[in-house]
Amino acid sequence: MYEARFSPWQSWGRRRKLRGLELPGVYAIAYTGRDISGKRFEWRKEIIYVGMTNAVSGLKWRLNQFDNTIFGKRGHGGADRVRFKYPNYAKLVKKLYVSVAPFKCNVKSNHPTDLRKMGDVAKFEYMSFAHFVERFKKLPKFNNKKESPKYSKTRGDSA
């Protein structure tokens, strides 16, 4: 069920080629030395982060926030934890892959159908966490806030 909702994997540098980025949704980020571009999404231990957005700017905006943060700016807590472990942006992005599960709805609307769909996005993120934990016995590495420190917090930054 979950696998079919996600796009095929795409390399981080080509993430803008994914479809549905203007929509809200859930995204999974994997870190691996193997090229998994174009491969069907499947739950894999290399998934290091699962996130979601219901923002008007959609998945594209949230993935850009992630990218800005791993590059050295602020704005994404999970990416700040990734940056702590992998501070070299150029090396990191060569091994990052992303898959998205967009949800078609109007996030500006207060129509019950759209509100339910936005709730479905949040639920899908938590169902994805549950599925990952069932399979691998733990959350993706950088979703675990207790075990993954933030770069900004360890460097005296206030982010």
Keywords:
single chain; 159 residues; alpha+beta; four-stranded antiparallel sheet; 6 helices; 4 strands; 14% strand; globular
Describe the structure.
- The protein is α+β, with helices and mostly antiparallel strands and 159 residues long.
- Helices cover 38% and strands 14% of the residues.
- The protein has six helices and four strands.
- A four-stranded antiparallel beta sheet has the order 1-4-2-3.
- Helix 2 (58-71) packs parallel to helix 3.
- The longest helix is centred in the C-terminal third of the chain and has 25 residues, at 112-136.
- The radius of gyration is 15 Å and the shape is globular.
- 36% of the residues are buried.
- The model has no long low-confidence stretch (mean pLDDT 93).
Topology at a glance:
Elements lengths: L1 H4 L4 E2 L13 E7 L15 E7 L4 H14 L5 H9 L3 H5 L2 E7 L9 H25 L14 H4 L5
Antiparallel strand pairs: 1-4, 2-3, 2-4
Unreliably modeled segments: none
Q: Kindly state the mean pLDDT as a whole number?
A: 93
Q: Please tally the β strands and state the result.
A: 4
Question: Helix count?
Answer: 6
Span of the ends, CA to CA:
36 Å
Rg for CA atoms: 15 Å
Q: What shape does the CA trace take? A: globular
Given helix and strand content, the structural type is alpha+beta
Strand order of the largest sheet: 1-4-2-3
Summarize this entry quickly.
By secondary structure, the protein is an alpha+beta fold. It has helices spanning 2-5, 58-71, 77-85, 89-93, 112-136, 151-154; strands at residues 10-11, 25-31, 47-53, 96-102.
